Amino acid sequence: MDSDFKVLVALFFVGIVASLGKALFHLSSGTETSQMANALTLRIGFSIALFVLIAIAWHLGLVSPHAAP
Predict the structure, then answer these.
(1) Is this structure's pTM higher than 0.90?
(2) Does any domain span residue 8?
(3) 29 assigned to some structural domain
(4) Residues 36-64: b if buried by 16+ CB within 10 A, e if exposed
(5) Domain span at residue 47?
(6) What pLDDT, in 10s, does the model give residues 9-53?
(7) In total, how many domains does the chain have?
Protein backbone atom coordinates (compact mmCIF):
# COMPACT_ATOMS: atom_id res chain seq x y z
CA MET A 1 0.00 0.00 0.00
CA ASP A 2 1.20 3.49 -0.79
CA SER A 3 2.19 5.57 2.25
CA ASP A 4 0.16 8.55 1.01
CA PHE A 5 -2.93 6.37 0.95
CA LYS A 6 -2.23 5.18 4.50
CA VAL A 7 -1.95 8.77 5.69
CA LEU A 8 -5.22 9.69 3.98
CA VAL A 9 -7.04 6.75 5.58
CA ALA A 10 -5.57 7.66 8.98
CA LEU A 11 -6.76 11.26 8.57
CA PHE A 12 -10.27 10.03 7.80
CA PHE A 13 -10.20 7.87 10.94
CA VAL A 14 -9.01 10.83 13.02
CA GLY A 15 -11.84 12.94 11.57
CA ILE A 16 -14.39 10.25 12.43
CA VAL A 17 -13.14 9.94 16.02
CA ALA A 18 -12.93 13.73 16.44
CA SER A 19 -16.50 14.25 15.27
CA LEU A 20 -17.66 11.49 17.63
CA GLY A 21 -15.85 13.25 20.46
CA LYS A 22 -17.46 16.55 19.56
CA ALA A 23 -20.90 14.93 19.50
CA LEU A 24 -20.23 13.31 22.89
CA PHE A 25 -19.20 16.66 24.32
CA HIS A 26 -22.39 18.33 23.12
CA LEU A 27 -24.46 15.39 24.36
CA SER A 28 -22.93 15.49 27.84
CA SER A 29 -23.08 19.27 28.17
CA GLY A 30 -26.74 19.31 27.12
CA THR A 31 -26.50 22.62 25.32
CA GLU A 32 -26.97 22.55 21.57
CA THR A 33 -28.57 19.44 20.12
CA SER A 34 -28.22 20.89 16.62
CA GLN A 35 -24.43 21.01 17.03
CA MET A 36 -24.48 17.38 18.13
CA ALA A 37 -26.55 16.45 15.09
CA ASN A 38 -24.14 18.35 12.84
CA ALA A 39 -21.17 16.48 14.34
CA LEU A 40 -22.86 13.13 13.80
CA THR A 41 -23.77 14.11 10.23
CA LEU A 42 -20.13 14.99 9.63
CA ARG A 43 -19.11 11.58 11.00
CA ILE A 44 -21.47 9.84 8.60
CA GLY A 45 -20.01 11.88 5.74
CA PHE A 46 -16.47 10.92 6.75
CA SER A 47 -17.46 7.26 7.00
CA ILE A 48 -19.09 7.21 3.56
CA ALA A 49 -16.15 9.06 2.03
CA LEU A 50 -13.71 6.57 3.60
CA PHE A 51 -15.72 3.65 2.25
CA VAL A 52 -15.75 5.16 -1.25
CA LEU A 53 -12.02 5.91 -1.02
CA ILE A 54 -11.23 2.30 -0.09
CA ALA A 55 -13.49 0.99 -2.86
CA ILE A 56 -11.75 3.20 -5.43
CA ALA A 57 -8.33 2.17 -4.12
CA TRP A 58 -9.33 -1.49 -4.43
CA HIS A 59 -10.53 -0.90 -8.00
CA LEU A 60 -7.27 0.83 -8.90
CA GLY A 61 -5.19 -1.91 -7.29
CA LEU A 62 -3.76 0.13 -4.43
CA VAL A 63 -5.19 -2.33 -1.91
CA SER A 64 -6.06 -5.96 -2.37
CA PRO A 65 -8.19 -8.24 -0.27
CA HIS A 66 -6.67 -11.50 0.87
CA ALA A 67 -8.22 -14.52 2.48
CA ALA A 68 -6.86 -16.10 5.62
CA PRO A 69 -5.54 -19.64 5.17
Answers:
(1) no
(2) no
(3) yes
(4) beebbebbeebeeebeeeeeebeeeeebe
(5) 14-60
(6) 899 999 999 999 988 888 888 777 888 888 889 899 999 999 999
(7) 1
